[in-house]
Automatic annotation (TrEMBL):
Co-factor requirement: Zn(2+)
Organism: Rothia santali
GO molecular function terms listed in the Swiss-Prot or TrEMBL record: mycothiol-dependent formaldehyde dehydrogenase activity; zinc ion binding
Key words, A-Z: Metal-binding, Oxidoreductase, Zinc
InterPro entries: ADH-like_C (IPR013149), ADH-like_N (IPR013154), ADH_Zn_CS (IPR002328), ER (IPR020843), GroES-like_sf (IPR011032), MycoS_dep_FDH (IPR017816), NAD(P)-bd_dom_sf (IPR036291)
Protein known as: S-(Hydroxymethyl)mycothiol dehydrogenase
Enzyme nomenclature, EC number: 1.1.1.306
PANTHER family per the UniProt record, alphabetical: NAD-DEPENDENT ALCOHOL DEHYDROGENASE (PTHR43350), S-NITROSOMYCOTHIOL REDUCTASE MSCR (PTHR43350:SF21)
The protein's enzyme class: oxidoreductase
Ranges of residues in domain Enoyl reductase (ER): 9-361
Record's keyword annotation contains Flavoprotein: no
Record bears the keyword Oxidoreductase: yes
Amino acid sequence: MQQVKAVISRSKDAPVEVTTINVPDPGPGEALVKVLTCGVCQTDLHYKKGGVSDDFPFLLGHEASGVVEAVGAGVTNVEPGDRVVLNWRAVCGECRACAKGEPQYCFATHNAEQKMTLEDGTELEPALGIGAFAEKTLVASGQCTKIEGDLDQDQYAAVGLLGCGITAGIGAAINTGAVKRGESVAVIGCGGVGTAAIAGAALAGATTIIAVDIDDEKLETARGLGATDTVNSRGTDAVEAIRELTGGFGADLVIDAVGIAATFEQAFRARDLAGRVVLVGVPEPGTVLQMPLDEIFSRGGSIKSAWYGDTLPSRDFPMLVDQYRLGRLDLDAFVSERIGLEDIEPAFEKMQQGRVLRSVVDVAEV
């Protein structure tokens, strides 16, 4: 067992705190990872606010890069010294989704069996089974995706973001939305996930990419990451603007990266006949949508939700890192600031105010 510094959320809405935790040595199927960098994600804030569960205390952080320090018995996919990006979809290979050849939907993903604890033995619940606002963390080995070749500290700060939000957005476009070359795509909401969806649409070859938001600065950032057109919906009807930019028909694919009833209805009405709608913004519990069923029928097409962008880390992470290295995917643009473990509470405030795409915690040097 080792003792390390980490950031925990002790109770609902209480400020996070840096404290000492106990990290067990890896058991069968587990890996001990020295954390290099970790992004501050909206999901961590959901944990802090009690929006995920009430299993406090939580060990926060999950968008992380790191170095495998030790592995337990039976681990073959990684070994000590491997540079990795952590993920929360360590597929089981046995559930009904995996049995159908759709492991990106795995319903029984693996986490470490052993619990990390506070010094007094209180068990911690790691965010998304990772808990990477810590100098070291214990995960299931399948939560480690090996990254070949060397990167510098700045590059690991960017690549680590693939662990959650950036991949969710890119995957919503490429995997869930199945963007084809030459198609039109509209993305409603240009936070980290929405902007990543725009980058994903550009990577997939969309030729008309419309960014919709109420913040001009976010729209300008979206343009830098692939948007061909922008719509400030604070004073413009987003549906009509998207139709105008697509020859009066609507977009082939519209992605709702906000997750409220109003933006989902905009997405539904802004798509072409037989077009696709993808919901990647996470709705608040109890959110209700009321729409005439005959309209849903008459428009045809598809409506999908994107769970982690239908991402399979072992397949997608290495490909996206390659695109980053080739200069086709600007992950650096998502890193708004670099901070320390003690700066996470202010980072949450900046995120809620829309002042950053991602704050990234530098935990250890490469």
